[in-house]
Amino acid sequence: MQKLSQFLFTQDHATERETVKTEIKNERPTLEHTLDQFQNCFDLVQRTYPECQIHIVYLTFLAGADQIMREIILPFSDAGEEEAAKILKRSQYTLVTDSKECIKGILGGKAAIFFQKQTYLVDISEPVGRTISQSETETVISGPHDGFVENISQNIGVLRKKIKSSHLKIIRFEVGEIAKTEVVLAYIDRIANQELVDELARRIENIEFDAITDSNMLVQLIEENPNSIFPQFMTTERPDSIISKLIGGRIIGFVDGSPAAFCCPNNFFDFFSSADDYYQRWLLGSALRVLRFIGFLITIGFTGFYVSVTTFHYEMIPHTMLLNLTESRAKVPFPPLLEALLMETTSELLREAGARLPTKIGQTIGIVGGIVIGQAAVQAGFTSNILIIAVATSAIASFVIPSYIMSASIRLIRFGLIILAGVLGNLGLIMGIGLVIIHLAGIRNLGTSYLTPLAPMNFSDLLDTFIRGPFWGLRKRPSIVKTENQSTNKMRK
Questions:
Q1: Predicted pLDDT of residue 20
Q2: Where does the pLDDT of residue 367 fall: very low under 50, low under 70, confident under 90, or very high at 90 and above?
Q3: pLDDT of residue 431
Q4: For residue 173, how many other CB atoms are within 10 A of its CB?
Q5: What is the mean pLDDT of residues 38-50?
Q6: Are 119 and 102 in contact (CB under 8 A)?
Q7: What sections of 312-335 are H helices per DSSP?
Q8: How far is CA 208 from the centre of its chain?
Q9: Choice between 300 and 364, residue whose per-residue pLDDT is larger
């Protein structure tokens, strides 16, 4: 009986809280309620004009001086009540009847004007952000050099300028229980698959998180395989890449405050494609793409293969190299597995230090530190010359992958393959690679296979997967977008 009473008490209070929330949401905005909501906010400004009985409230750090002068000071400084009523009928002054909408407007850079028991909002915000400039993380030799910025309005404006079509649709969301970050999805109607658009919109609407500050945070909350080491949503700061993705039937999105746009659906091979591939002759672009896949194989397997051969399979080493390898390892006190893990960890420490330090100092640390530490390690007998070559080659090969997130994921896989190679030899190395392939085959991206067009096989898509085919051959959108309209003369990146 006591438990039943407690349950009913809890239910009554829950109903009461919901009722209070509804009342707060639907109540008329007042000056007293607004000031109470912003209590202890030193950046809140309240202006009063006694002649026309107007009270104005706004946040000073969100407002621009010119906008305040134009929309507030000049119109109301010498105005009477009748004149103020006429001014507030202008289009820039919006009547609001909900206190929640009033608070939201002030937080968005607007001023709340209280006049004769009515409340109006006027935009006095000053655009904050940097001008459009070249992306520092995705440089190209030829092609456009503009990049997205942190202001979502500017990014949407860039899209509108480059795609002058009414079929470009943009959907807006608010994500974050506290921060209320603006998120938009963009797609081209009649080209993008509407089912995929609806599914992505549903995932974004169902996000329950306090604050989203970057696109890379958002995609981790809407991925189908959040525990996978591989990224499923591609992010880029290049407008030309995003434009080609849109024309190719994909869906893109922006997060306010983030210069990176995300794109979906994607497959594993999209992360090896670069904008440079399409601005050069197709034979050269194909050669560069093949080189990236070779670099991928070197990155994940070269050091592990060294450990496997020097631990279990000396018979695989040519006789001309065997003597040099034996002399090089004669003074090394560690087994190949520990030796390789030590040098790979040192390489990652140098890479991370170079990325976190200022640009000029970081470059010096990466180059000088690598040379000094490598030479000193060999002379001290901690490692062999051949391992230094293997580690350096693996590190250099990882830089040819255009996507930084994919490059970081591959580098982490390398450690697992090294351990398997040191324990089981070539068998462990092959088992590790097999497990990676099985994992890739199980990843889904908006209901599509991550290994498309290999699994399932689609021969028409292979022309723009391992190679960059000529433009006359790229006349169909990739099967991963699941769109009915397959005819296009686009450039895909």
A1: 37
A2: low
A3: 95
A4: 16
A5: 89
A6: yes
A7: 319-329
A8: 18
A9: 300
| pTM for the structure as a whole | 0.78
Quick one: 96 exposed, middle or buried, by C-beta within 10 A (0-12, 13-18, 19+)?
Answer: buried
Which percentage of the chain shows pLDDT scores above 90? Answer: 37
The long-range contacts involving 348-355, CB below 8 angstroms and separated by at least 24 positions, are 348/411, 351/395
For residue 130, the 8-state DSSP code is P
CA atoms of 245 and 264, how far apart (whole Å): 9
**Three-state DSSP state, 170:** strand
Q: Which two tokens stand for residue 380?
A: 């001290």
Q: CA-CA distance, 410 to 76, in Å (whole number)?
A: 62
Average of per-residue pLDDT across 277-289: 89
Q: In this structure, what token pair is assigned to residue 279?
A: 């601005």
CB 252 within 8 A of CB 245: yes
Q: Which long-range contacts (CB under 8 A, 24 or more apart) does 385-391 make?
A: 385/328, 386/306, 386/324, 386/325, 386/328, 387/303, 387/306, 387/336, 387/339, 387/340, 387/343, 388/343, 390/302, 390/303, 390/306, 390/340, 391/303, 391/340, 391/343, 391/344, 391/347
Contact yes or no for 289/466 (Cβ under 8 A) = yes
Query: Are 261 and 244 contacting, i.e. CB atoms less than 8 angstroms apart?
Result: no
The answer to whether the bond into 265 is cis (omega within 30° of 0) is yes
Pick the residue with more confidence: 132 or 347?
347
> CA 229, CA 405: separation in Å to the nearest integer?
10
The CA distance from 391 to 386, in Å, is 9
pLDDT digits (tens, 9 = 90+) for 15-35: 444 433 444 445 888 999 999
Q: Is the pLDDT of residue 1 over 60?
A: no
Question: Are 477 and 485 contacting, i.e. CB atoms less than 8 angstroms apart?
Answer: yes
Residue in this structure with the two tokens 């000193």, named with its chain if needed? 376
Alpha-carbon distance 85 to 281, whole Å?
A: 66
Q: In whole angstroms, give the CA distance from residue 388 to residue 367.
A: 14
Strand order in the sheet with 54-59: 44-49, 54-59, 110-115, 118-123, 94-96
Mean pLDDT for the stretch of residues 181-209: 92
CA pseudo-torsion sign 336, 340, 341, 346: positive
Q: Check pLDDT > 70 for residue 361.
A: no
In this predicted structure, what is the pLDDT of residue 368? Answer: 66
